[in-house]
Sequence to fold (255 residues):
Amino acid sequence: MFRFLREWSERRVLERAEIAPAEWEQAFAALPLLDGLDDDECLRLMELTVLFLHRKTFEGARGLEVTRRMQLVIALQACLPILELGLDCYDGWTAVIVYPSGFARAQTFVDEFGIEHEVHEELSGEAWERGPVVLAWDDAARGGYDDGYNPVIHEFAHKLDLLNGDDNGFPPLHADMDAADWSRVFSAGYDDFCRRSELGEDLGIDDYAATAPGEFFAVLSEVFFETPDLLQASYPDIYQQLRRFYRQDPLARLR
Ligand SMILES: [Zn+2]
Fold:
């Protein structure tokens, strides 16, 4: 669609958005994570959220009815990382599938003897390349409490990472960023984190980050928005890279 037509039709969507102030209040109250945003940021986040709800579809799995409140709580968290990047970052797919709670997914892996195994893993979210984002509502609802755990931000960070192919922890960077700097800082951080997590050291960062570089990026994105002081203390260089990538400074906001 021509860009001006999209902008025109989205103006209309914003003008016609029928979300009552009480509904917004309820959703913001469920997300203490957003407390540090100023009025201008809150308004822009609400606009993005309305457009997100317009562009995306919500589908309940296992008979779940995805209420307006659930949609707002998910969409507000999904839009926080792209507050300064724009909703176009989430183009190319439409469905958000919501399970009532964790869902099992069969994963196959090949062991050191070349034998294939199938394991059933309980997931709280998934992001498919050019496909849906899948979330578990009970986990998504627990995400907004600035404690470093946020499955919605996690899955949408994967979506940003997937914009240039694999979710390998190397999303498309802005023109004013340096790819070599990003790789150096993230590789060193990942190696260090894997080593420390193997030693049982507790940095207050989910050990799941040691699974793969893509998971390291997604988990550290959660930490960046929720407990930026922890990230700054352990990996200040990564904090700076994420600050430039997301064009936000949660550390300044949460002080
Ligand atoms: Zn992940």
